Amino acid sequence: MSALERASVAVIGCGLIGISWAALLRFHGHDVIAWDPSDAARENMAEAMEHPLAQLRELGGGQTATGRFSIAPTLQQAVRTAQIVQENGPERLEVKRALYRDIFAAAPTDAIISSSTSSLIWRDLAAEAGTDARRIVTAHPFNPPHLMPLVELFAADDAVRQRAAAFYRGLGREVVSLRKDAVGHIANRLASALWREAVHIVAEGIADVEDVDRALVHGPGLRWSVVGAHMGYHLGGGAGGMAHYLDHLGASQERRWASLGQPALTEAVKEKLIAGIGAETRGRSIQDLETARDAQLIAILKAKGGLDV
């Protein structure tokens, strides 16, 4: 299966992430067969995909989805002909392992089982899979997957990882590969480290929630949308680049590291965070905030250009 061929993809789990994946897959011409243990989730899936599909059409200049879509009454029927199984089950190890047992029993023997997990690691997911473990890939997307291009991959079998990477690149995704299995992959570890300090700043009374968020969005966050952390410091070193930065400013960086906090989510800290985000939202609903976020994400993606949605 090349990245460009029409594939049969089983989407297991029809929640927020599954809906987003299914829309992206259909937009790129793949046939999606979806299943969820919830009757309501299965019945809602087709209608729920309309919004992300509309966003993809906007990004793609009016291009329409060409992939077929169907709902399977059972997991076994969903995966029976699948080349890729995109698993989006709950973040509970026992649930995912049970799903894998059923998938291995029914799916083709060369199908890749790709997990959207954000908190579990490959070695735990694959611990009971025996020889089928090589087919499991962790493929962590950033939410919402149809708009956020990042996919973080880990697989024990390099050939399987390469097949999965080619597939996701064919969906216009930016694929990064972990060399070592790690909790939180790459991006969530970075995001968690930053939020830890954001919480510390609020807990210590250095700044309130809204000003912390504004500082990030209008400062490093804007720069990080075009260059990463390492490249940012390389450019910060001027003509001498990273070597100059480390020689001349490395000590000051270490002093900042030493001052970073280790906050605890006590009741008092949680109250500060909840009150602070309440002030920042100014009464806007989650749906309103998501709509505003997505509109700005689409504008940023268009401005950056060159991204194959």
From TrEMBL:
The yes or no answer to whether the keyword Oxidoreductase is present is yes
* GO BP field: fatty acid metabolic process
Say if the entry is tagged with keyword tRNA processing: no
Q: What is this protein called?
A: 3-hydroxyacyl-CoA dehydrogenase
The UniProt keywords, alphabetically, are: Oxidoreductase
Q: What is the lineage of its organism?
A: Bacteria, Pseudomonadati, Pseudomonadota, Alphaproteobacteria, Rhodobacterales
Q: Which Gene3D superfamilies match?
A: N-(1-d-carboxylethyl)-l-norvaline Dehydrogenase, domain 2, NAD(P)-binding Rossmann-like Domain
Q: Which domain of life is it from?
A: Bacteria
Report a single Gene Ontology molecular function: oxidoreductase activity, acting on the CH-OH group of donors, NAD or NADP as acceptor
InterPro entries, per the entry: 3-OHacyl-CoA_DH (IPR022694), 3-OHacyl-CoA_DH_NAD-bd (IPR006176), 3HC_DH_C (IPR006108), 6-PGluconate_DH-like_C_sf (IPR008927), 6PGD_dom2 (IPR013328), NAD(P)-bd_dom_sf (IPR036291)
- Origin organism is Haematobacter massiliensis
